[in-house]
Design goal:
The chain is α/β, with parallel strands linked by helices and 224 residues long. It has a single domain, classed as TIM Barrel, CATH 3.20.20. The protein has an 8-stranded parallel β-sheet with strand order 1-8-7-6-5-4-3-2. It starts with a strand and ends with a helix. It binds D-xylitol-5-phosphate and zinc ion. The site of D-xylitol-5-phosphate has 22 residues, from β2, β8 and α7.
């Protein structure tokens, strides 16, 4: 099932609930929350208090993308705040198996993220522990960057590995998603699309989400 997950990073933080709900009105079925610590990535964003406020203001699941070091120290706080999905970066988890199990133990959907330079093979031993894999199509830290096409080869490999192992994790992509890049990503096997600046950067988030959904659905028909 194709889903659009608008990234609130590009929303107006002073009217977060309104922006988020406009995106939902346009057909967004998830909201993507970018959590940055100024260490793993060179930027600082938001933490559990904002997640807790957003949880009360919107009805769709919150997909929290943790771009932070030592995620185990914060996963319980995000769970308490009402996060529904949590993904952690392969690059920061020295004990990735333990971290993924910790997310699961809090009853949340479990995700793992790969930076553009990280090969899919690094996930070989944890594929059966995750509900979704987030492939970064930009280097994490900022919205508004250009889509890195090599991400699609990684998506194809992850889809092949999934079939070979009889698993059913979903594949999400993050960074530079717009009307031009969404079609090729659908055809490569992506189901969940994070989009920040495209949705919130040019006014009318509802119409932007509708446009992305339509483009993705058209590409799905071509794939079939
Ligand atoms: C980047 C974040 C993304 C970002 C995407 O570090 O993980 O979620 O908000 O923004 P766009 O869609 O503008 O590339
Ligand atoms: Zn993100």
């Amino acid at each position: 099932m194709i889903e659009i997950a608008p990234s609130i990073l590009s929303a107006d933080f002073a009217r977060l609930a309104e922006d988020a709900n406009e995106a939902v009105r346009g057909g967004a079925t998830l909201l993507h929350v970018d959590v940055m610590d100024g260490h793993f990535v060179p930027n600082i964003t938001i933490g559990p208090p904002v997640v807790a406020s957003l949880r009360k203001a919107v009805d769709v699941p919150l997909d929290c993308h943790l771009m932070i070091e030592n995620p185990d120290d914060y996963i319980p706080a995000f769970a308490d705040a009402g996060a529904n999905w949590i993904s952690v970066h392969q690059e920061v988890c020295r004990h990735l198996n333990r971290t993924l199990n910790l997310i699961r133990s809090h009853g949340m959907q479990v995700g793992v993220v790969l930076n553009p330079a990280t090969p899919v093979q690094t996930l070989g031993e944890v594929l059966d522990l995750v509900d979704y894999i987030l492939v970064m199509s930009v280097n994490p830290g900022f919205g508004g960057q250009k889509f890195i096409p090599g991400a699609l080869e990684k998506v194809r490999k992850l889809a092949t590995m999934r079939a070979a192992k009889g698993l059913n994790y979903r594949i999400e992509i993050d960074g530079g998603v717009d009307l031009a890049t969404i079609g090729p990503a659908v055809r490569a096997g992506v189901e969940i699309f994070v989009a920040g600046s495209y949705v919130f950067g040019h006014g009318d988030p509802a119409r932007k989400v509708e446009g992305l959904l339509k483009a993705a659905q058209e590409a799905t028909l071509l794939r079939a």
